[in-house]
Amino acid sequence: MPSLRDVTIVNLFYENSTRTRISFELAEKRLSADTINFTASGSSVSKGETLLDTVNNILSMKVDMVVMRHSASGAPHFLSQHIPAAIVNAGDGVNEHPTQGLLDAFSIREKVGKLAGTKVAIIGDITHSRVAMSNMYLLKKMGAEVTLCGPPTLIPKYAREAFGVNVSYNLEETLNWCDVANVLHIQLERQNQVLFSSLREYNLSYGISRKLLEGLKKDVVIMHPGPINRGVELDSDVADSGQSIILQQVENGVAVRMAVLYLLSNKNN
Ligand code: CP
Predict the structure, then answer these.
(1) Fewer beta carbons within 10 Å, N or C terminal of the chain?
(2) What DSSP character marks residue 173?
């Protein structure tokens, strides 16, 4: 489908990524866009070049759209106030990961058949998770019921009031309540203080095992945005089971990102 022929897109990744970067690149190629891949390592960022200078230099080479991942929350918003090109947020710090939210919602609807009234548990490190934030906004907007579950140190105290969600610190109760469990990556790389005593302790209280799932009253759909810490938030025999839709999420990411790129280009006008 040559919908984005003559459109040039830069994938600007200041932070590591496997799924998001590759699926944006595939989405662009499937729409016949021209793509450039930029990673901060190996670029002139190491020589002190600012984000704005980097992007303005890339745009001067007639680049039309920017897909951007950055470790600083708000970086895409900052950029949007200084450059004319369309910017797609591919994950910014602990703020948002909008296309992950879209592909998660799409995957739930594909599996369950609807979003309104579906009970979704978001489990794990809510405080450091941009995936949790984008999931909450979208799922609540679409009429799903949302419960956040994890240790009290990893769930913001304001979450219940701010987002209209339920909060539970009991994993088994939460799994018995929900239709879908979206299990988050423990953000070891973003924690600058110790918020639980050890990974082993986390796994004992909040890790999802086959034994735990077998004790529930119903089959819960298991999701995870990746990358999985196997044996921490999710055991391998759960991640790789028929209850898991983790690889379908990845597959859906390409289609969802194709739609986002198409809608943000001027080609649909
Ligand atoms: N889900 C997600 O954002 O994964 P990556 O960090 O590999 O892109």
Answers:
(1) C
(2) H
